[in-house]
Amino acid sequence: MNKIEVIDFFSKNYFCRKCFNNPNITKSGKPFGVADVSGPQPRWLGKNYFNSEKKICIMLINPGSGDKTPENEWAPLEKLNKAETQELKEKFWDQLMYTNEVGMPKWGAWVNLYFESLGLVEKKDEVAFMNMMLCASKGNAYNKKSLDLCFSSQSSNLLKMLSPDILIFSGAQTISNILKKSIPLSTLREKKGEYSREIDSSLIKKEIKDCLLPTTKYYFMGHYAYIKNEDHEDARIIANSI
Q: Model pTM?
């Protein structure tokens, strides 16, 4: 796989709305509504990711409600969908990556946790990020059903394209969703101790492993929102392992 296939994936799926106005996916009894930013939002994809010696991908939950990344910054999403040439698609993709690049330092502890504590500052262009649920929803709504639906129909295909050697799950909800049997983040930390944040592949759902090579290694860590010391400790332990 390569970057062109990832670009085409986001271009073709701009109008996917399976999780929205869906009576089977609700929050407080109401179906999810599309956020101000419509369409699947790509996270950061380093320009050298597909050529890196060890492909590292960090999977998060969703893009949030979009209030910190105004619609005009994500306008290239629609342009990407309408582009008729590969040259134009790559132009708008580069604009989306620029939105990510200038946005990451504004997203709270994002840079501090995912680049500095994980030891990836110098490997920024070799790292990829993705969400299990690709689209933002009003009020930052998501739940197990929306995550499962998006993964089964859309984001699993993205994970196959990225095909990381190391996949790091960030956030309690993400971790819960990828395990065969849900285990609290605090329990995982207690079980693994001070020196490991690796997840045995036998605990991972088949639908995740089916996207990847048998040699892929899995890790867990906290989330950049509502940051705690334990989240940075997770990242430092992983950094010493990879």
A: 0.95
